[in-house]
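Before relying on records like the one below, remember that each one covers exactly one chain. Contacts with other chains, cofactors or solvent are not represented anywhere in the record.
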Amino acid sequence: MGRCCLKRTKRRTLAISVLPDGTVEAIAPLGATVAEIRRKIEKRAGWISRQRRHFLSLQAERPERRYCTGATHRYLGRQYRLKVTTSDKPAVKLRGAYLLIASRSASTRAVAALLSRWMRAKAKEQFERRLGKWRTWCVERGLSAPRLHLLAMPKRWGSTHPNGRMCLNPELVRAPAPCIDYVILHELCHLKHPRHDPGFFAELEKLCPPWRALKQRLETAEL
């Protein structure tokens, strides 16, 4: 069956999902036995295999990122072409359909580092602005005011602690804006519902009705 991750909550039914890295995540009721969970996962073996093949095909189609003139990178879901020049004054500017990168060296390492810093700064700017719209909503419900932290996470877009510390992956800034908002709302719901229980999904449904479509869009986006 491959890698599996089991979580337990007060929910009444078992929820099974396949993560982009192929891990099977099972969210089970507190009283469910391991044997019961295993049987139900095995019944979904065909669907799990199809999901894993789907994610593998997406990974195979995604070429390694390049950092030279002519290479393309995404920002807020839109594709931009790089124009790399050498300069004593390093800078990255967004102009039309291009990302203009002035670097002291045209080496892959130097250009990648410069673009990474620019993306991280834009991520902080975008995430803070979008998150700021919901701080009043949190206060009105007696929840901790969310505090943004950028954290590179290989398998997750975000995580939130009940004390308000919200970690978002800076790579998320490459995704379409609606997908960024979905992740932020997902994490906001965790301030009220730490687990993926029925209350969590009911709250997410209210705040972001198209969340299922946005989740799928994010999982299949070429970033």
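Residues 4-61 form one domain.
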